[in-house]
Amino acid sequence: MEAVQLTKNFGSFAAVSGLNLKVQGTKCVGFLGPNGAGKTTTMKMFTGLITATGGAALINGVDVTKDKKAALASCSTLIETPEIYSALTPREALSMLCEIRGVPKAERRKRIDESLGLVKMTEWEDKRVGSFSKGMKQRVNVASTLLSDPEVIILDEPSTGLDPRGMAEVRSIVMSLKDRLIFMSSHLLAEVTEVCQEVAMIDHGKLLVYDTIENVTAKFAGGGGAVEVGFTRAVDEGLVSRVSQLSGVQTVTRTNERHIVVRFDPNLTARDKLFEGIAGLKAGAVSFEQSSGLEDAYLSLIKETL
């Protein structure tokens, strides 16, 4: 799949601006960026759900805008979180999708059995979806993307809204699909690190970097260590300033209302002193966790958006 100067404007607002990105092979690529960066808009242009203002979205060399049927013949998608009719069973829901997608009748049962098997929902295939948990429904949604045995799968935050067990189940499913190209957006950097081999980061509709996770981490994570610190109350500029003045601190970045990531000099003594210094501020620090290399790179590339 390839974006060539892909652009989408909503009035005067440029959601995606001249995006150039070429992804190929069999692997999982994480699509990262803050809220409003243009990730879902990009995916919707690749799937023909919205029309690009300019440029092209190509799948297997075919422009989605010019020939949607041919472009999407080898592609399957899960954009946002579709709802399944609660009165249907997984088998009934997938049968309906097979008919819509033109899967030959002789192949439908086999395709459904294989898809439900991959997402570990075989024993629930004849139960009503209305009684399912969010995680179970999402597994059925993922199964729907496998019915046509696609070469390319586009997933938009497949773990959103799930509990830890549901997240783990979806990650396991994605990791099992090793013989396809999977393009997956996510806000969960630990999930991307575990599942993906490469990452593409965008912000304000523009590509910042596309490379292997190892290369992105090595280039942008910096030479220091990093920890994420959580507080019981909102982090204000005064607290950020006080932490910045502690010995060994290089940078301090707010990641949300009650968390900061602190980059520091990479040695054990500096980390111990940092822990003592933050505790000594008596600002309500309640957690102190190692920040992943990808998270550090993300914060380096994508500036504060609060």
Please provide a brief summary of the model.
This protein is α/β, with parallel strands linked by helices. The chain has helices at residues 39-46, 68-71, 90-101, 105-118, 134-146, 164-176, 189-195, 213-220, 237-244, 268-280, 293-301, and strands at residues 2-10, 13-22, 27-32, 54-59, 62-63, 75-78, 152-156, 181-185, 198-203, 206-212, 225-231, 249-256, 259-264, 285-290.
Description:
The protein is α/β, with parallel strands linked by helices and 306 residues long. It folds into two domains: 2-217, P-loop containing nucleotide triphosphate hydrolases (Rossmann fold, 3-Layer(aba) Sandwich); 221-301, Alpha-Beta Plaits. It is 36% helix and 28% strand. It contains eleven helices and 14 strands. Strands 6-7-8-3-9-10 form a six-stranded mixed β-sheet, sandwiched between helices. A four-stranded antiparallel β-sheet has the order 2-1-4-5. A four-stranded antiparallel β-sheet has the order 12-13-11-14, sandwiched between helices. The protein is globular and about 70 Å long.
- The Cα radius of gyration reads 22 Å
Unreliable stretches:
none
Order of neighbouring strands in the sheet with most strands: 6-7-8-3-9-10
Largest sheet: 6 strands, mixed
Instruction: Tell me the number of strands.
Output: 14
Class by alpha and beta content: alpha/beta
Strand content: 25-35%
**How far from one another are the termini?**
32 Å
Average residue-wise pLDDT: 89
Query: Could you give me the name of the CATH homologous superfamily of the largest domain?
Result: P-loop containing nucleotide triphosphate hydrolases
The ordered string of helix (H) and strand (E) elements is EEEHEEHEHHHEHEHEEHEHEEHEH
- CATH class division of the largest domain: Alpha Beta
Helicity level: 25-40%
The CATH level-2 architecture of the largest domain is identified as 3-Layer(aba) Sandwich
Helical region count?
11
Instruction: Choose one word for the global shape.
Output: globular
Return the CATH topology of the largest domain. Answer: Rossmann fold
Q: How many individual domains?
A: 2
